[in-house]
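Q: Sequence in, structure out?
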Amino acid sequence: MTATLTGREAGDPSAPRGPLLSGSRCPPSHRGRNDPSWHWLAREYVWFLIPYMIYDSYAMYLCEWYRTGDQSSKHTLTIFRNFLSKNRLMITHHAVILFVLVPVAQRLRGELGDFFVGCIFMAELSTPFVSLGRVLIQLKQQHTLLYKVNGILTLTTFFLCRILLFPFMYWSYGQQQGLSLLQVPFHIPFYCNVANAFLIAPQIYWFSLLCKKAARLFDAPPAKKDG
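A: Exactly. Output:
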């Protein structure tokens, strides 16, 4: 269902693979996005995740170091422990991507599951808006229209690309296999459902934090006028 949902899960190993599951056996009449020559993109783009995740983890550590208030101090084990303690969920998220998702998407899935790998990549569509929000906070621009518009875009893209994405993948698989959305979880390997649960759980948590932050922003009382 993610990169792990790539086999002939309906129970018939002799069933032909459809375009959602196969990276190389697409109908010859379908070109463009279903062209098997695009298979390399779903595989090689994974390599961008490695330096990105390493850089992001290091950047988060530097932020924690700067929060100590004494940039002249050395990087100590205490600072590193505080960093791990405050960012357990995010570090776990990065580690799972590096040590689980990358090997699965790069090697273990064979030539199957390009569609699902591409869907997972779509999750990063929300990242620019999340990052811009952080930049605006650093610049103390929370009162601006740009900050509010960016907040709406952040919520929208996060919900669509990190939460609604998962039922969409189940629905897409069901359409190929002739199953309803509710039937799909019972016709795929159990580990696929478990993997998706682990992936979507932190997304729901982070989305709830974004919603609470947005509620505080838009529920803030307007400034009182003099007189």
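Residues 2-19, 21-33 have pLDDT under 50 and may be disordered.
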